[in-house]
Each structure stands twice: as structure tokens, then as C-alpha cells.
Amino acid sequence: MDHVFIEGLEIDALIGIYDWERRVRQPLVFDIEMAFDNRVPAATDDIADTLNYKAVSKRVIAYVKASEFGLVETLAERVAALILDEFGVQRLRLKLGKPGAVRGARAVGVVIERSRGEG
Ligand SMILES: Nc1nc2c(c(=O)[nH]1)N=C([C@H](O)[C@@H](O)CO)CN2
């Protein structure tokens, strides 16, 4: 299956379970792979036939900037649902990294895979 991807999308967000984390914004990094048949836009060479990665990125940035969740799990789930619902994506893999959250680790976070119509 083909994919459209967004890699290393960095967005500052209010996220975390500790008191200090409710007062500052922290960088999050998203890697998103979205299943999409590349042959359709390749046949027409028309942006209207693509899954437009710029449009998806702009929507994710706006959502994450306005969010205030405690856990990265919650945010990852909501962003995945948003992409599946609003962009008609059938399946995706989303990695949400929180760099600097754990001393000694480059990043910590979650990786989820979700499909449209799944529980
Ligand atoms: N599985 C998770 N573990 C932790 C989370 C989280 O969102 N999911 N969050 C924290 C703190 O907010 C941490 O990032 C602060 O450094 C701890 N563990």
C-alpha cells in the first residue's frame, strides 16, 4: 500500500501531567503515515486528487496548538481520529514524540495504528 507521510512535524503544545507542565508549552514531534493510493493523483497530476499533506499538516498544527491534554496517548488518539474522519484516510500510523521529557532519552511517546471504522 502507498502512503502519504508527514515527518518531524514539530508543534509546541500544552501537555503533561505535572503542575509545571500546565504552565509552559513543550515541543512535540509528529511522524504520520497515511495510506493512500498514489496511482490516482499520478494519473491526473491534479492536487485535487491527492491527500494534500500541507492541508493535513495545517489542520494538525491548529488542533495540537489548541489542545490541553495530560497524556500523549490522548492527544495521539484524537489527532488520528481527526485525520481519519476529516480527510477520508482509511488507515494511518502516527508517532508522537515528546523530546526532552525524560533526561537521557532523545524522545519518549507513543506509536499508534488506526483504521477508519475501527472501535
Ligand atoms: N505513557 C505515558 N507516560 C508518561 C506521560 C504520558 O503522557 N504517557 N507523561 C508524563 C509526564 O507528563 C512527562 O512527560 C513529564 O516529563 C510521564 N509519563
Lay out the secondary structure.
Blueprint: E1 3-13, E2 26-35, H1 39-44, H2 53-66, H3 72-87, E3 91-99, E4 107-115
Antiparallel strand pairs: 1-2, 2-3, 3-4
Helix pairs in contact: 2-3
Give a written overview of the molecule.
There is one protein chain. The chain has helices at 39-44, 53-66, 72-87; strands spanning 3-13, 26-35, 91-99, 107-115. The protein is α+β, with helices and mostly antiparallel strands and 119 residues long. The chain has one domain (3-115): 2-Layer Sandwich (GTP Cyclohydrolase I, domain 2). The protein has a 4-stranded antiparallel beta sheet with strand order 1-2-3-4, covered by helices on one side. A hairpin with a 7-residue loop joins strand 3 (91-99) and strand 4 (107-115). The mean pLDDT is 97. The site of the ligand Nc1nc2c(c(=O)[nH]1)N=C([C@H](O)[C@@H](O)CO)CN2 has 9 residues, from helix 3. Residues 16-18, 21, 71-73, 98, 101 line the site of the ligand Nc1nc2c(c(=O)[nH]1)N=C([C@H](O)[C@@H](O)CO)CN2. This is 7,8-dihydroneopterin aldolase. Keywords: Folate biosynthesis, Isomerase, Lyase.
